[in-house]
Structure formats: C-alpha cells, structure tokens
Description:
With 170 residues, the protein is mainly beta. Helix content is 5%, strand content 46%. The chain has 2 helices and 12 strands. Belongs to the RimM family.
Amino acid sequence: MSDNYLVIGIITRFQGNKGEVRVKATTDIPERFFDLDTVYLKRGDELKELEIEYIRFHKQFVIIKFFDINSINEAEELKNYQVLIDESEKYLLPEDNFYVDDLIDCEVYLASGSYLGKLIDVIDTSGTDIFLVKGKDKEYMLPASREMILEIDLENKKIIVDPIPGILDL
C-alpha cells in the first residue's frame, strides 16, 4: 500500500437495513467498483481499510456491502466518507485522457508562452469539462476542448492552451 490514493466515490447514506451504503461515484468508470476487494475510507484525518462483501448498482448509485458492517447504525456512521483506492490500482486511461487529480496544480500557459495561472479544478459538465485556472488577479474558466488545450505535460505539470478570442475577458 502506498501513501497515494485516488478518490472514486463518496458515501452519501445507508441503503436498506443490512448495513449497505450508497456511494455517489466520482469516477467516469463506475464499473471499476466490481474489480475491488477492498477500499479505503477517509474522512478528515481518519483512514481505514474495509473489505467488500458485495457490490451492486441501484439507479445512479453504487451500493456497497462491507464485511463487519451489518446494521443501519453502522452504515450510517460511514456517511460522508470518501471511498478511495490505492493509486497503484488506477486504470490506465486511453491516450489524451487524464485523471483530474493528475491535472490539479498544473501550471497553465498560453500558446504565446505567457503564464496564465494554476489549474485548481476541473468542473464536470454534461458536455465538455471546464478547466478552472487561478491567475494572479482572477480565475478563468476554459473549456477543456481539443481546440483549446494544445498540450498536457503531466511529467512537468504544464498545460499549454490557446483560448478563443475574448474568453479570458469574461
């Protein structure tokens, strides 16, 4: 086990009366839950490892039953815990796809070479994701489209963008 984890969901509440929990997946690949035998739960500074008894889907949620969690009360205590996996278990993504955690804190530059700011968030929309970049005096929202994002260099934590005219003035 490493000291690096990847958040794949958050427990929102208990489900049923057998100790199941309802998880809102924060991964684009919710099916990945089926490949897991254990996960880590984190809230604040507390981190614990739990073994999975079974997983099922209900509507847009992942339902997890952990061994040793057998009642509504025990399941309710897990509310608001993040569900994490060891970084070594993350899936290899197709080319030009990235984990949000890998993009956060990248330095963002314009194609001209000017420094724009630091990527502080990626906003998931129903269409194109939005890069939230914190500049010196303001924040910029840039669509993460192939036309605007020219290069992502994770090794050097650097992103080069060519925004459409006027978008930086918004």
